[in-house]
Amino acid sequence: MSHARIIVVGNEKGGAGKSTIAVHLVVALLHESARVMVIDLDVRQQSTGHFFANRAAWAAAEGVTLPHPTLPPIDGEHALRIGLTQDVDFVVIDTPGADTALSRAAHQHADLIVTPMNDSFVDFAVLGIVDPITLDVIRPSLYAETVWDARKTRAAARGGSIDWVVLRNRLASVEPRNRKRVDERIATLSRRVGFRAIAGLRDRVIYRELFPFGLTVTDLSRTVRPIQVSLAHVAARQELLVLTQELGLLESAH
Predict the structure, then answer these.
(1) What are the backbone dihedrals phi and psi of residue 167, each rounded to the nearest 5 degrees, phi first?
(2) Is residue 32 within 8 Å of 250, Cβ to Cβ?
(3) Does the pTM exceed 0.85?
(4) How far, in Å, CA of 104 to CA of 152, rounded?
(5) If residue 167 lies in a helix (H) or strand (E), which one and from where to where?
(6) Helices in 110-230 by DSSP H: which ranges?
(7) In this predicted model, what pLDDT tens digit does every residue of 28-41 receive, in sequence order?
(8) For domain 5-247, is the CATH number 2.60.40.10?
(9) Under 8 Å CB-to-CB from 99, ≥6 apart: which residues?
(10) CB atoms within 10 A of CB 147
């Protein structure tokens, strides 16, 4: 078994930003000189896998040097088995937006589970079920139960605990009154099932513009600049830095 810190980006819902979060965390760690393996368990979409393939192609075409992670074969089960035994500092696992046996296995090996969600009751349903009249939290969701089961399995098998963090993504597009309602339910549920909620990434154009090149704001420099940049990219870089700090990743990278 590897001594790598295993980060699982999980959420049983598509469109929550799992792959976006995964690639940004990986690239941030690479620029801290960490050795990182990436496993994309979404074998159909392979958004994270395609991102790093595009990164290698763009760097080769432009003649620039970029840090790259290790990527095992696409075969999900084989990739997971390889990733859990590699001599690296971090293994980042991007999971599909569905309940699968491989995804559950990945969760059970996690040191840190990162669950991105958009700030709406549509995405909140991944965490908990609310009363349609009062909006009170009735019970945790099936995904919350999956994380609970993973924590029990992990504790019984290897000891230790799993840190579960919910990322509140794309805050800019949410109406304040609805956000307050979501805030209150998340606070209630976090105490009940044991996660901590922090701000994720805002809905910034620069994140989407860089994605096809296999790049993030952490890569931008005088030689790595495929698009016109402005002060907005400074704010985006700071946002990502705060995120990695609150997840406790920068300390682990050294």
Answers:
(1) -100, 125
(2) yes
(3) yes
(4) 12
(5) strand 163-169
(6) 121-124, 142-158, 176-193, 205-210
(7) 999 999 999 999 99
(8) no
(9) 12, 142, 143, 146
(10) 25
